[in-house]
Design brief:
Elements (H helix, E strand, L loop, with lengths): L2 E5 L16 H10 L4 E3 L6 H10 E3 L5 E3 L6 E14 L2 E11 L2 H11 L12 E2 L3 H11 L4 E4 L19 H5 L8 E3 L6 H4 L9 E3 L14 E5 L4 H9 L5 E8 L9 E3 L4 E3 L1 H7 L14 H8 L4 H4 L1 E4 L2 E4 L7 E4 L2 H8 L8 H12 L4 H6 L3 H21 L3 E3 L8 E3 L3 H9 L4
Parallel strand pairs: 1-2, 2-5, 5-7, 8-9, 9-10, 12-17
Antiparallel strand pairs: 1-11, 3-4, 5-6, 6-8, 11-12, 13-14, 15-16, 18-19
The protein binds zinc ion (ZN) (2 copies).
One zinc ion (ZN) binds next to loops.
Length: 427
């Protein structure tokens, strides 16, 4: 059965937080290098981006798009939307992810939803209406749309996130919870965390990069088995017979920017246990800590890891209790290179040069991270980075978890090893 890898959540150069390099032409080049066969366009309601899409892409007849210039890559029209609505004393803010079958559906959505938001001003348009109403309007404009709750555990703009505080999909979406066929796990959580929450039983779990830059494309993705078509995607995401989700690739959740609790300005991070004993206020400034994904999961989810009967087979993590697709943890190659040389920013020349060199060999990043043998890795990226990749495969690394928007820090080598490496001037 054919297989394909999809990254269904990205943002274009029209999104305020995105790199200007996120043009369609660049995405068409980078997606195959990252091993992505099906790419969500992101921002499909934005008029400028939509124009760029219709200039360079044509519909493939199945509801997907293909580049006019040719190639095997397929794209699907996607967008992230925000619903803001009052709940008790506060405003809830919920992000949705949607995929739609073709430009006709985008047009209908734009004429229906356009008056309620400024589609040209913001790539993630905000709608002042209940999340359930937004879902309903998306489905009314185009019944074949696929709607997901985005990054479900992140604090600020997700269903279970600490700032919204819903403890079930039904609490947030009412009767329309059944139309949320799948949810996005997000960068600070993985299926293992979601499996612990019975509210997500029967929902498919999607992993995607939420990339704002080319190099982050595909850092998380979903692997499908079956037909690469809009119909195939629908079957897999709704759990219908036919195409199905084979598994997901997850950036290690502790690296995500909202894993632990904390306060960014004071550089205070706290685990759920520390928070339990020391309280929810920042010890430096006494403001409320931002409660992260891990703590929220512990608060609402009832199952223990033991109940899930988790096993690891050939790197894939699966639950023997739940009949759900397995997942595999990954650390993006750029982060591995940066950690090898003790470099903080991924933008350093050393990191970028080695990263480009690694991809120039014709292997995708996933093949480099998971499949290439040590000798091939060493020939491609040198012995140190090869060793680092192998250590990550075996789980020999340490992470200082992310919190309140601060990314987690990765350490692969001991300080002494990194110092020796610097002395040898291997880069
Ligand atoms: Zn979002
Ligand atoms: Zn503080």
């Amino acid at each position: 059965m054919p297989q394909f890898a999809a990254d269904l959540h990205i943002h274009s150069r029209f999104c305020g937080e995105s790199s200007l390099q996120m043009s369609l032409q660049n995405l068409l080049q980078w997606a195959p290098r990252k091993g992505i066969d099906l790419l969500g366009t992101g921002d499909c309601l934005h008029p400028g981006w939509c124009e760029e899409l219709s200039d360079l892409l044509v519909e493939d007849g199945s509801g997907l798009l293909r580049p006019k210039q040719g190639g095997a890559l397929r794209l699907v029209l996607t967008a992230e939307l925000e619903a803001i609505f009052p709940v008790e004393e506060r405003n809830a803010r919920i992000h949705l992810l949607m995929a739609v079958p073709g430009f006709g559906a985008v047009e209908r959505l734009r004429s229906d939803l356009g008056p309620a938001a400024d589609l040209g001003a913001e790539a993630i348009p905000s709608f002042r209406m209940p999340a359930a109403e937004l879902v309903e309007r998306i489905l009314n404009a185009s019944p074949q749309s696929l709607v997901a709750a985005a990054h479900v555990w992140s604090p600020c703009s997700s269903v279970y996130g600490s700032k919204n505080g819903f403890s079930s999909l039904a609490e947030c979406f009412g009767g329309l919870a059944q139309d949320i066929a799948f949810v996005e796990t997000g960068l600070s959580s993985d299926p293992g965390m979601c499996w612990r929450f019975a509210d997500l039983d029967g929902k498919r779990l999607l992993s995607a990069s939420a990339a704002n830059s080319l190099r982050n494309l595909g850092r998380e993705c979903t692997l499908f088995s079956g037909e690469l078509s809009y119909g195939g995607l629908t079957q897999a995401l709704k759990g219908l017979p036919g195409t199905f989700i084979q598994g997901t690739i997850e950036q290690v959740s502790e690296l995500g920017p909202y894993f632990f609790n904390g306060h960014r300005e004071c550089q205070i991070a706290k685990s759920p246990i520390e928070t339990h004993f020391e309280g929810r206020r920042c010890p430096a400034c006494r403001k409320q800590l931002t409660i992260g994904a891990f703590q929220r999961m512990l608060e609402v989810a009832g199952r223990t890891p033991e109940e899930l009967d988790i096993i690891v087979e050939y790197g894939w993590i699966r639950s023997r209790r739940l009949k759900v697709p397995p997942f595999r943890k990954a650390i993006p190659l750029q982060k591995i290179i940066a950690a090898t040389y003790g470099v903080k920013g991924r933008e350093s020349h050393t990191v970028q040069n080695l990263y480009e060199k690694a991809l120039s060999g014709g292997n995708t990043e996933r093949e480099i991270l998971f499949d290439l043998a040590e000798a091939d890795l060493a020939a491609l990226v040198g012995h140190q980075v090869a060793e680092a990749i192998l250590r990550v495969r075996e789980g020999y690394f340490r992470i200082t978890p992310g919190y309140d928007g601060v990314w987690g820090q990765l350490e692969i080598f001991e300080e002494r090893e990194t110092a020796e490496l610097l002395q040898l001037k291997l880069f």
